[in-house]
Amino acid sequence: MKIRNFFTILSLLSLTISANAQAKKFAIHTVAFYNFENLFDTINDSRINDEEWLPNGAQNWTSKKYKQKIHNLARVLNEIGTGENNKNSPVLIGGSEIENRGVLEDLVKDPQLINNDYGIVHFDSPDHRGIDVALLYQKKHFQPTSYINIPLLIYKKDTKAKDEKETEEDKADKDKIEVAQDNRVYTRDILLVTGLLDGDEINVMVNHWPSRSGGEKKSSPFREAAGRLNRKIMDSIYKVNPNAKIISMGDLNDGTYNKSVKEGVGAKLKKEEVERFGVYNPFEEMAKKGNASLFYRDAGDIFDQIMVSETLIEKDYSSFKYWKAGIYNKPFMITTTGQYKGYPLRHGNNEVGFSDHFPVYIYLIKEVK
Question: What pTM was estimated for this model as a whole?
Answer without folding.
Answer: 0.89
